[in-house]
Each structure stands twice: as structure tokens, then as C-alpha cells.
Amino acid sequence: MVRGLLWILAAVLLGGIVHLSTVLAMPQAAKQDAYSRLAPLTPVNTMVPLALTKAGAEIMPFMDPAFATAVCRYDLSGGPLKLIAPVSQAYTSVTFYTRRSVAFYAINDRAAGRRTIELDLMTAAQHAQVPEDEEITAADRLIIESPTTMGLIVLRALAPESGLVPMARQALATAKCQIQSQ
């Protein structure tokens, strides 16, 4: 009896280990992650508004039809990136993801406290090379360090009513994501 219970316990433990390792390995093995899906639609270091979301035909999973969305696939190997995103009337958010879809930073219009979200994205090595300017404070220049050289910037603007979708899309159309000129 005890021997049978030990076999059952060992089988459950082995099944749990296999299940957990499979769940943890899936993001690395996925072929159609967000970056891969957006690669044919978006050039590198350019902000591109995405088409409006329709049920069952989303480009990325869990896209909300109440939000207009724009995406920038970034590559920091050419230098730091400058992001300028005007805010919409309702709500605007910017989220930064690594190449493997790990979110590492997010900011919204309320946290930015301005009519434009403006920031610099760079690697830790690029940030170390930025000269210190005593007249420029951290409030004047927001610098985000990316853990990887490639990734995604997702900009979302809320359209609280269906008639406000064009206004939200217009706010995203003027957003810029480009390599900084030295």
C-alpha cells in the first residue's frame, strides 16, 4: 500500500515538473510572438499606426477595440532612440517590451504630466556615454534604459466613444520614434 502511494506521489511530482518546465519554455519556443507578427508590418525605428481591431482578427492578442494603437519596432544598435508622442484627450500610454515580449517600462499621460510624452531610449552602455549636463535635470529629460537592443514600443490612445476613434488615431499619427542625431 505504501509502495503504491510512493509511486503515485512520484508520478504527480514528475508530472508537475514536466508541466512547469513546459509552461516556462513556451515563450522562448513560440514562433509567432508579437515581434514576429509585427515585423512584416512595421519598419525598424518608425512609429506605425495599426489598423482598427476586429474580433477574431487581432494582430496581437488581447487588443482592445476602444484603443487606437501604434507600434515602433526599435533597434538601438544604430544609437539611442527619441520617442515623441502627443497625448490624446482621454488617455495615452506607452509600454516598452524586449524582443521576447517582456515589458520593462510603461508610462501614461498622467504620469508624464505634459501634452507630449518625450523620452530617450538607450542601452546601459549608451547611457554611460551620455555627457552630464548640470542644466538639464531628470525632469527635463527622461531616459529609459533598454535591457536589449531590439524590442517594441506600443503606444495606445483611448477612444471612450466610437465617434472619438478618429481623434485618438490622429494623436497617434503624429508620434515619432527615430534614432537621435548626434
User: What is the CATH class designation of the largest domain?
Assistant: Mainly Beta
CATH topology tier name of the largest domain: Immunoglobulin-like
Q: What's the total count of β strands?
A: 9
CATH-level-4 superfamily name of the largest domain: Domain of unknown function DUF1254
What structural category arises from helix and sheet content? alpha+beta
Give the termini distance in whole angstroms: 75 Å
Q: What composes the largest sheet?
A: 5 strands, antiparallel
Number of helices: 5
Uncertain runs: none
Order of strands across the biggest sheet? 1-2-8-4-5
Mean pLDDT figure: 85
From the spread of the alpha carbons, the general shape counts as: globular
Number of domains: 2
**CATH architectural category of the largest domain:** Sandwich
Rg over CA atoms, rounded to whole Å, is: 21 Å
Question: What report would you give on this structure?
Answer:
By secondary structure, the chain is α+β, with helices and mostly antiparallel strands. It folds into 2 domains: 1-30; 34-179, Immunoglobulin-like (Sandwich). It is built from 5 helices and 9 strands. The chain has helices at 2-29, 34-38, 109-112, 124-128, 165-173, and strands spanning 47-49, 67-75, 81-86, 92-98, 103-108, 116-122, 142-145, 150-158, 176-179. The strands form 2 sheets. It has a 5-stranded antiparallel sheet.
